[in-house]
Every structure is written in C-alpha cells, then in structure tokens.
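hey can u check if this looks right to u? its 264 residues, i copy pasted from the old doc so theres a chance i mangled smth
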Amino acid sequence: MSIDSQSGSELSAEALAELVKLSTPKHVAIIMDGNGRWAQAQGKPRVMGHKAGVKMVRRAVSTAREMGIGSLTLFAFSSENWRRPDKEVTLLMELFFTVLQREIKLLHKNGVRLNIIGDVSRFSQRLQKQIAAAEAKTIDNSSMTLNIAANYGGRWDIMQAAQILAKKVESGEMNSSQFTEQALNAHLSMQNQPEVDLMIRTGGDYRISNFILWQAAYAELVFTDTLWPDFDECAFKQAVATFASRQRRFGLTGCQIESLKKTT
C-alpha cells in the first residue's frame, strides 16, 4: 500500500499496523533522579530519599501494569554511581538486597517478570545469588517485564555485545559481513523486548546519562522537574499522555503519518 503517491514509499500491511499502534508505549524507561535532593530538602539523610524512592518504584510498577505497558525499565544504579561516597554506595547495595527480598513475592503474585540488566559481577556474592533467585522465580511471568538497570551503562551494553561478536569472528563461528545491527542487537540487554518508546527523567536534569543508548534510539524524551519520590501515578500518566500527543515519524513525513492513520 502506498503511503503517499508522491513519495514513492511503500510499507507492508504489517508495518502500517505497527505504526498506528505506536500511540501507546510498549516500553517505558525511567531515570529515577532526585532521591538525595528530596531528602536534603526535608533535612533528612540521603538514604531516606532512596527509601522513599523504593516506595515510588512499587507505585510505578502498579501504574504501568494498569496502563498495559509491557516493559518498564528503571535506572537504579549506573556504572558511574560507584563514584559516590562509600557509605552511600554500601547503603544502596543493602537497600537493593532488602528490596529484592521484600518485593519479589509481590511481583510474582502480580505476574511480573524481574530482569536485572547490567554487570552484576561487581556485586557481592550474596547479592548476585539473590538476583539470580529472584529472576528464576519470576521467569515464566508474562503480565509485564520489569527491568532494573543495576551497575549499568549504555556504552558498556554496546561494548559487551560487540566483544561477543568479535570473539565469534575470531573463532570463525561467523564472518565479518555477518556483524550487522541485527546481530549486535541480539546480544544487547533486553534483546527480546520492544525498543524503548518513552524515556522519562525526573529531577530536573536534561540528559540521558549513558542509559540504554541503543534501545532508546527513537524514544520520545520527557523531562520533569518532579523529584522521583514525588513522581506519583498522576505524574506518570501525564508523561504517557505527553508521549501520546506527539507524532512519531521514524523518517517519514508528517503528511505520510497522517495518511497512514486515515487509511488503516
């Protein structure tokens, strides 16, 4: 079916249907920023902000499930966060362990699959075992996938995938011509999930901080001054409404997209 008789561009019926469906985000990623500042504004230790942020994670998961979002990815701990004061890092690791123990039953009850993305090898053996057990417990759940990015960096993600393919080329398992975008994508984190449609950053900063660089190549970006512990259900839905109000063109013209909506 022709999109625009003057453009010469054609898409399959499947591609047309996919474009129309893009008004609803299948995959939302959130940079949860502002926990420490939230606590400091209230005269509390920074760790209290992180604990308040955990409560908002539970609410965000519930809201995402309610809206029918299939994948939710949360930036919990970046590879750069190791530069923070040792005491804060230690508290974050303990909080991560405690939350896994406490929340996994609720996630499992609600059919949510937990998937930890990032280089977990730097974590303690105790935490690594807890992560593996939590993922195994929820592996067959299908109502939603919750990706927690821990010791994660977008550049690391791309590099580790490239290294896997490079080793395959060296061993003769594949040749260099097979080193394609599709091959690289197959070795990235979340390779079996939809690409990110909407990326939200709370806390007032306007950058993506080395977060899922490949998977968010065409994501709509929403930045809000709201600090993460205050990012409630209403704020989440407002961000999704902002996404829905935008026109995603994927290289096409606005006229072509409007034509698609009228003809499908």
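Residues 153 and 209 are 8 Å apart (CA to CA).
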